[in-house]
Structures are given as C-alpha cells and as structure tokens.
Amino acid sequence: MSERRGGEKTLEEVKKKVMERVEEVLPSDVVVTDVDFEGPEVVLYTNSPHSFVKDDSDLVTRLAKALRKRVKIRPNPAALSPAKEAKKVILKIIPEEAGVSERDLLFLDTGEVVIFSKKPGLVIGKRGKNVHRISRDTGWVPRIYRQPPIPSKTVNTTRRLILSDDSRRKFLRNVSARIFCGRTRSRGTESRWARVSALGGFQEVGRSSLFLHTEESRVLLDCGVNVAANGTDAYPHFNVPEFRMDDLDAIVITHAHLDHCGFLPYFYRHKVIESRVPVYCTPPTRDLMYLLLTDYIKVLEKRGQEPPYTEKDVKKVIKRTITIDYREPTDITPDMSITFYNAGHILGSASVHVFLQDKGHNFVYTGDINPTPSRLLEGADNRFKRVDSMVVEATYGDSRHGSRRKEENRFRKIVRDTLKKGGKVLIPSFAVGRAQEVMLVLEDMHRKDELEGPVYLDGMIYEATAIHTAYPEYLNRRLQHRILHEDDDPFTSEVFEPVEGSDHRQAIMEDDEPAVILSTSGMLEGGPILEYLRELSDDPKNTLIFVGYQAEGTLGRQIQEGAKEVPLPTPTGKTETLRIELRVETVSGFSGHGDKIELTKYVRSIRPSPPSKVFTNHGEPRACKYFSNHLRRTVRKVFSMAPENLECFRLT
C-alpha cells in the first residue's frame, strides 16, 4: 500500500487493503460489493446479508478478527425489496405477540430497518430465525430496539436524534479518517510516552476529568462538574498548558452522573469539536446523560445562574455519541483502543481499559465502582486482559459501609416504624442508581405486606426508571430473568406513583396519611426534595433517610452532621432558616461505591494480576491518601500514590 509522509494513508487506500483481506476470509459464494467506514467500524456491503446473520454463521466474527476492527454488514441497495413490500413480509414473519405494527418499523437509507418492540426476543426468534428470514426475504438488515414498558420521552428523543441526523454519516467518516488513516502527529513513529494530567476529581469529589495523551493521541476521560461549587471551581482545569480543546481526538464518558459528564456539552459549542470529536459511552449512559444534562440547565436557571451551555448543545452531544457495549474492544485513535467493563455503580457505568498499542501498555480508569453485587447490578468486573497501571476511585477509601444486608434491614425497620407512627419517610436520592436500588427494596416490602402506604416518585426518578426498563440486559442476572423470562418487572409495581406536578405534590404534603417520598436531588442541592423538607421538617413523626454520598459544603452534609438549623433558599430567591425537628438517619447499604475493604479486594483480585502502578482519585484528600497508603501496605508489588489536581503522571 502506498503511504504518504509520516505513514498517513487515504481512506481509499485503506478500503482497497480491507477488500483484499475480506476476499481472503470469505467463502467464494459470499460476495462483498463495497467497503465503507463509520467511526471505528468497517462497513461491508453485500447482496446476501442473510449469509452473515443466520444462526450458524461466524463470518462477522472471523472478519472482525482478521481486520482487527468492529465490522457491520449492510445490504447492497440493489438487493433491497421496496419498503412497502418489505413491510408486509416483516409483519408476516414477526409473531403477533411481539406487538409490532406498521408504525413500529422505520426504514433507513443505510439498508437497515429499525423494529421497535416491547418483546425483542420474539422479534429475533429462536436462534435468530426471524432476523435471518427478514434479511433473506427482503434484503433489509433488521436493527431491533426495545420499547420500555414505562414510556420514556428521553429514550424516544435520543433515538430520534441519532436516527434523523443528516450530518452523522459525514461526522462518522471524519472520525474514521482519524482512526484508519495512520499517524498525523508522531509522523509514523511509535509514541515513546503516555501521560495522564489530573484536570479534576483528584483529592476531591466532583468535576472528574483525566487527560490521557501520547505523542500521537489526545483523549479526555470524563468531563464533569462539581455541583456544590461556584465559579471556576465547578469545572475541570482545562487551562493547563498541555491541553488544547481543538487537539482532542475523543472523549470517553464512564457514566452519566454530572460529576463525570456535566461539562461535556460546553465542548460541543465549538464547531471543530462538533465536526470530528466523538463521545464514547454505553447506550444507557447516552440516554441518562441527556436526562441529567437537560435537568442541570433547568436547575442552574432556577438558581439565577447562567448555564455554560444550552439544550441545543446537549443534543449535539447525543448526535456525536458512539455507543459501545461491555467487553467490545474499539479503536479510538491510531495508537489507542478502549474496552468497557461493568463498573457496578449505576446503569451502564463502565470502567475503561485503554490499550496503548505502541508500548503494549494496559491502563484502566475505574470511574466510580461498586465491587459488590446489589439488588440492581452485578458487582464491578475486574477480569481484564491485562492491567499495568490504574486510576481507582477512593470515595470511601478510608471507611467501612458495614454489612449491606444489615443496612437494608435497618432501612426496612426505619420505614416500617415511621409509617406505623403515621409519619412520612422522605428519601433524597440521585435520580439514577440509588433511587432504583431503594425502589427494589420498597417493592419487595410491598410484595411482603410490610409497607403501609404508597411510594411517591418525584423529580426525574420516574423518567430515569423508565430508562432502566429499556435496558434490562444491563441489570443483574436475577433481575434480568425476572423481567425477561417471568414477565415481572418490579419497576412497574402498583405501589409506585409518579408525582404529576406542584398541585399533586402539595396534596401529598397536606395529606395526613403515611407515605414514602423518593425525590431528587440526592444532596438537597435543589429539586422537589426542598419543598418536601420545608413542609415536613418540623414534625418529629417524619423521617429523613440519606442513602447516598453527601459532599462537603452541601445542605445534605450539614443536616447529616447534625445541624438543627439550616439555611434554605425560598422560591422568591431569599433565604430562610429551617428548623430540623424530624428524625435524620443515614443508611450506607445503598451506596454505589465500594468501601475500603471492597476496593482493596477489588484491586488485589484483579485478573490476570494486579497493576504495578495505582493512582487514587474521586475522594476527599484524607480518603485518597489513606487508601493509597493502604494499597501500598496490603497489595504486593504495588506502587501507589494520591495525585492532586494539576499534577501530571507518566504511564510509560
């Protein structure tokens, strides 16, 4: 293959090479008519797409292995049945019980047909039989989306933004050019070093952001805000000399909490970023990001603060996402590939394994992790291909949670006792993660007749829960089985009642009947929870239960530490003093973070072996330093340190 200076190639040159390799791998009766590129994927066009999707075919796997790239199969346009005819054939193939009608079919100009169904398994058929028949009889390649049992505006919006984006193909081709066409900065030579700059979230909780850079590549890992801070302290240190926004190749987001993605849309106000820089995350993270980012704008506006971006910028982010499932290796630059692993923190949360190809170095950024299985999720996965260095979170690196089972039993007792006295249980919670964990316990109590009263869901919790129902494959195996095989989704239980607005909320507060109220925000920094607190705080019969982390400086932290009088903003913008007379409890069993013992076990038991270098982050200074020293003492042959923001450390 001819190369230009510095090892650069054109996509046409790469295409020719790919076609040669494809012809070597495929049997003679399967013909690929064209090759294209979409982001990190090689797209192969064929007259017989059904040959690739039948149940006994391993052709896609063989091609991906030979090309060392993700591979997507598309039909040659000439092989497609007219959409009107294909629609009739598809509806005849799909069983009636799948509940698919004409309006659930969307034909794309890529030769794919999107099929929306509440029961995707029935659409796919046993061993993919229906998918194969659709492809064989119509030429169209099915792409199946689950319709959540709880209707979700967010899921509908993100899917529409992706499917209707006319600029997406051009954008993906720009991404492909960067990944496939060789080195542009190191001019064909190997990168001799790799470094991480700590831009935020080191010896603090909030504004998490790491800048991973080699001679060839510039990648941002997370891009968060500190919701409890003001001014520039709320955002990462993007003014360091080594970081230039226009030089970025990719942004990787571990999960949807604002302290990891809250500043992301600001970047997409800039045309250079919008035109060629992708955001890599899991599918649930993409949807949850849209929900939380648009809400963050509203929260800032209510506080009288100007948001750093608009809802239009959030939509740009969604249009520029490339989603990756767990354990799916993906090239993101000429010398870096990433693989996501379940982090056990919230729906779709991921630890990022980065393979630095030139040095053969394996780096893992854990993001926020919970190594212990919960009612909602499996524990964090620590079975990697290899790990040489790691940045690990230390939120609770200096403390213990106590037994999760005991804490859950204590939670149940607090709820029962409060309701029996005729009081209300007020639970401030993050909309994503903690809320669903608590809901599963409350639903279990309801099934066992332990709950005397309804459970009201306020703020974004109901919508966030709807997103959970769209992705049962990301939940733990027991919950998956219950939803997919027993047709019993606990999130749709009759005990849960969404709060419809301010009038409904006021009626709940004025009602003398006992009830549980689950509402945002988790740290009492805004949201409907403040209205409930204002009305219910003066009655000792009521109970406030903290189930998540309360950051330093937040109202939640003040009350948790025993303050009996706290300042509370009023709807008119003034501040009033609120007396705290209700019972206050903290239950740590719902945490989405591992404690000192769980995190130590996680690092020590990493497979195939623990890393030789460990850097701690995402914890207050004492927690990060303590956990770093603890690892040095307890994990064999590990060098560990607790960097501060603005420090830069070398990986290779």
TrEMBL record:
InterPro entries: aCPSF1, Beta_Casp, KH_dom-like_a/b, KH_sf_prok-type, MBL, Metallo-B-lactamas, RibonucZ/Hydroxyglut_hydro, RMMBL. One of its GO terms (biological process) is DNA-templated transcription termination. Binds 2 Zn(2+) ions, which are required for nuclease activity. Pfam families: Beta-Casp (PF10996), KH_TffA (PF17214), Lactamase_B_6 (PF16661), RMMBL (PF07521). The keyword Zinc applies. Its EC number is 3.1.-.-. Terminates transcription on the whole genome. Termination is linked to FttA-mediated RNA cleavage and does not require NTP hydrolysis. Cleaves endonucleolytically at the RNA exit channel of RNA polymerase (RNAP); the 5'-3' exonuclease activity of this protein degrades the nascent RNA released from RNAP. Homodimer. Interacts with RNA polymerase (RNAP), interacts with the Spt4-Spt5 complex. HAMAP family: FttA. Belongs to the metallo-beta-lactamase superfamily. RNA-metabolizing metallo-beta-lactamase-like family. FttA subfamily. This is Transcription termination factor FttA.
